[in-house]
Amino acid sequence: MARPFGPIRRVPRLGWVASEPTLIRAVLNDHEHFTLLGEGGVGHLWEQILGPYVTRLFDGAGHADLRRRARDLFTEQNSAALVERAAGPVYADVTARLAAGDQVDVAAAARLVVGRLMADLLGLRLPPDSPDSAYLETFAAGERLAALALDTTASTELPPERIEAAKDIVRSLTSGVPAAYADAAPDTLLGRCREAGITLEEASGLASLLLVAGTETAASAMARTVALIHDTEQQEPLRADPGLIPDAVREGLRVTTPAPVIGRHVSADVTLAGRRLRKDERILLVTYAADNLAGAFDLARPYDPRSRQLWFGAGRHLCLGAPVARAEIARMVEAVCTAGRPYRIVSRGYARKVMIPSYASLVVELR
Predict the structure, then answer these.
(1) Domains along the chain?
(2) CB under 8 Å to 57, separation ≥6 — which residues?
(3) Structural contact between residues 109 and 90, judged by C-beta atoms closer than 8 angstroms
(4) Which residues fall within 8 angstroms of residue 6, CB to CB, at 6 or more apart?
(5) Are 264 and 282 in contact (CB under 8 A)?
(6) Buried b / exposed e across 73-111, counting CB within 10 Å, b at 16+?
(7) pLDDT tens digits for range 53-82
(8) Taking Cα atoms as reference points, which of 146, 294, 309, 286 lies closest to residue 220?
(9) C-alpha radius of gyration, the chain, whole number
(10) Which residues cross the membrane (predicted)?
C-alpha cells in the first residue's frame, strides 16, 4: 500500500509515510530532527512499560555511551557460539529427523530455538533436562509481550491495562536477571554485560528489549527463509555450495524484513524530499516496501547499496542483535538443506493476530 504514495506522503491518522530506501536511511541517521522517543517512536512505546530509563539510555548521549560499552556483546563469532550452545541440539534434531524420513515442522522448531536462546539471554536457569514446553513458554511470553504493541500504528500511547499486562510479563521473565548478572559466566550475555561495565539496570533493559525485538522476528525469518528457498526452487545451489548460506540469509531477511515498519517522532521542523515536517509529528518508515524494491528472493542477486541492512534499521539504532539473528537463520537453513536430499513442503499454516507475519506451521520432509 505504501508504494503508490511516492517517496513520502502524509496519511490521515498515521502521519507521514516514507517507503523509499535512501529516504528511510536519511531519517534513521538524522538524530537532530528525528527520535525514537515521543509519540510515534518505538522508544515511547517501551518507555511506558520498562520505565523512564529508556529515555535516558536509548537516545542521545546516554545511548551513544551504552552502544560504545555494548559493542562487543554480539560479534559474529560469539553470536554463532551463543546460538550453538543454546539451540544446537534443536538444529541437530531437525537434520536427524529429516534424514530418518520424518516430517518436521520448521516453524515449531524455530520457536523452540528462540525460546532456548531467550532463556539463555535472560539467565533463566532451567534444569538441563527441561522439556521443550518450558522453552516454548518463554517464547510464548515474548510473543504475548510483542502482541501488546498491536494496533499502535496510529498511536504509541498504550492504555493502562495493557501497560500493566506488559509489566507483569517483563517482571516474570526478568526475575532471574539479578542473580545471573552477579555470577554468570563471561561467555554469556549477562556475564559479558557485567564485564563490559554495563549496569544491572542497563542489562535488564537490554534483555527485555531483546525479548521484544528478537522473539517473533527471528522465528518468522527462520521459517519464511526455508519456505522462500523451496518456493523459488533454489535448493540445489545451496546443497552444492554451503558457502551460499550467508547469501540465503541476507536475501531471506531482505524479502521478509522482520521489522517491516519503523516509527519515529519528529523532534524539530525539517524539510524532507520537498515536504515540510513539523515538530511533534510522526513518520512511519515502511522498510518492507523499501527492501522489496529490488525484487523477489534470489541467491544470485548482487549487493544492493540502496537497502544494505535496512531490515535491521540504520545509524546508531541498528539492531544490536543482528549477528544473533543471522546465526539463527543460517543454522536453520543448514539444518534443512544438509539432511541428504532436497526437501518439499508438505503443509503450511499462517499465524494470526501476530505482530510479524509468520507461519504457525511449516511441515517439510525430504523428497
Answers:
(1) 3-366 (1.10.630.10)
(2) 63, 66, 202, 205
(3) yes
(4) none
(5) yes
(6) bbeeebbbebbeebbeebbeebbebbeeeeebbbbbbbb
(7) 777 777 777 788 888 888 888 889 989 999
(8) 146
(9) 20
(10) none
